[in-house]
Design a protein that fits this description.
Shape: flat
Number of helices: 0
Strand content: 35-45%
Structural class: mainly beta
Largest sheet: 4 strands, antiparallel
Length: about 60
């Protein structure tokens, strides 16, 4: 899953990022959006790594 960091009008709103896996994130206004479970985003000063909603393995 790749997010180019642009909104519907093509305006840059965040840094590009990409990830692996699927997570459906619910919001308070009853809207949900698809997102990844493990991702990375690069910045001019470094990187961010995201790990979201992984289930515990028993």
């Amino acid at each position: 899953m790749v997010f180019e960091g642009k909104d519907e009008q093509g305006k840059v709103v965040s840094n590009p990022n990409f990830g692996y896996g699927h997570q459906n994130l619910p919001y308070a206004d009853d809207i949900s959006k698809d997102f990844y479970q493990i991702g990375i985003s690069a910045y001019t000063t470094g990187i961010s790594i995201y790990i979201i909603g992984l289930k515990k393995i028993s």
